[in-house]
Amino acid sequence: MSERDFDTQLTGQKAFIEAQKIIQNSGHFVQPVDGSIDNSIDGYIRLRKKTRIKKNIKGKIVRGVTRVETGNLIGFQVKGVSKIPTKGSNSYYINVADKTKFGINFQSKEKLDKHKVVWQNFIGPVIIIFVDLESNKCWWGDTQIKESYSENGYSMIIKKENHLNDEAFREIKRLGGEKFISSMVQKIDTKDHNFETPSIVDLKNSAKKIYTKISFGVGNYPLINNNILGDIRYSQSGWQHITRKNRGKMRMINSLILLSVSYMICKEVKNFTKVKKGTPRESKRYIKKIDYLTLRAEVKFNYRQSSIIQVVLRRIKTFDKQNTLHSIPDKVYFHSVYEPFRTE
Q1: Neighbouring C-beta atoms of residue 140, cutoff 10 Å
Q2: Domain residue ranges in the chain
Q3: Which residues are CB-neighbours of 292 under 8 A, at least 6 positions away?
Q4: What is the pTM for the complete model shown?
Q5: The three-state (H, E, C) secondary structure of the chain, written as one string
Q6: Residues 154/108, Cβ–Cβ less than 8 Å
């Protein structure tokens, strides 16, 4: 019978090195945490992305790729075993009834709860990495979702298909979507504005009244002139888009409630992102090119938690084919408003 390896400190160090190797081979940097202050997080992944560049090498332009840091961090904790046991529970590895998964043993509910507090308060997402040193295989799990925790209270559950590799980082990068964006976008507090919500008794009709006020610049809704995009119009097409019959009911309700928030965002947010192009339209004299833009803000409400709110705008750029020197101002229209990271 082979001897069990009880040198947990060396096993832990080897497991960290194996995880670090995979992370670095995926193009990202690893920032270890000093062992003397390690508190539920063994290190940070400094996420990087590929970018195309040109270099002049000996008078010849050479195209290639490099990686640049995104500024986003993902925390991680590593657990490892020298060998996955076939039975028994005196190990970090636990066999579970569902053979497509396995458990990670934290020994007690108190220990795991302490880790969870740190993970939840971290600036970005935190993943748990499990390493089998015998096979040099690594798996990962998201510490932020309830599906990662067993009902027994002292262990986590990992899908065996969740191998830590280059492909996995496509999903891992998405974990921090809202946290990463909230650190970059403008903050808006509804208490600093005339925040109007439609009546829940007659939601659609009362929301339509708010939309009409915004459209015509009535009362607390002066016509919008964004510092970068210029005039932003709330036309009938925007109302028809957010209330169309094939739109999800909860998504429609969410948009109607957020109409006055969309007004705040259109008025105040200066940074926008182009997301897609529409179908160009052409007449004998004009070409109209359509693209869609997004404005984002982290909005603080007085009745629920803060959230990232996104407004979609439709921009029409018109070109005069007969007189190319004729400059025609762009027209920008409200298209939609919703919470991009909200699950329904």
Answers
A1: 23
A2: 8-182, 186-338
A3: 274, 275, 276, 277, 278, 312, 313, 314, 315, 335
A4: 0.57
A5: CCCCCCCHHHHHHHHHHHHHHHHHHCCCEEEECCCCCCCCCCEEEEEEEEEEEEEEECCEEEEEEEEEEEEEEEEEEEEEECCCCCCCCCCCEEECCCCCEEEEECCCHHHHHHHHHHHHHCCCCEEEEEEECCCCEEEEEECCCHHHECCCCCEEEEECCCECCCCCHHHHCCCCHHHHHHCCCEEEEHHHCCCCCCCCCCHHHHHHHHHHHHHHCCCCCCCEEECCCEEEECCHHHHHHHCCCCCCHHHHHHHHHCHHHHHHHHHHCCCCEEEEECCCEECCCEEEEEEEEEEEEEEECCCCCCEEEEEEEEEEEEEECCCCCCECCCEEEEEEEECCCCCC
A6: yes
Q: What pLDDT is stored for residue 79 in this prediction? A: 93
CA–CA gap between residue 264 and residue 303 (Å, rounded): 18
Q: Are 253 and 203 in contact (CB under 8 A)?
A: yes
**Amino acid residing at 100:** T
Q: What whole-number distance in Å separates Cα of residue 239 and Cα of residue 123?
A: 37
Give tens-digit pLDDT for 276-301.
Answer: 888 889 999 999 999 999 999 989 99
Contacts of 150 (CB under 8 A, 6+ apart): 96, 103, 156, 157
What residue type is 67 in one-letter code?
Answer: R
**C-beta separation of 130 from 137 below 8 A:** no
137-174 pLDDT per residue, tens: 999 999 988 899 999 999 999 999 999 998 899 888 87
pLDDT at 1: 46
CA distances 316 to 223, 280, 287, 321, 330, Å, are 19, 9, 10, 16, 6
Give the CATH number of domain 8-182: 3.40.1350.10
Structure tokens at 200: 């829940």
Measured distance CA(180)–CA(125) in Å, rounded: 9
Can you tell me the distance from the alpha carbon of 33 to that of 39, in angstroms, rounded to the nearest whole number? 9
Helices 203-216/249-257 angle, 10° precision: 50
Tokens of 91: 């190990």
pLDDT per position as a tens digit, 196-209 = 999 988 999 999 99
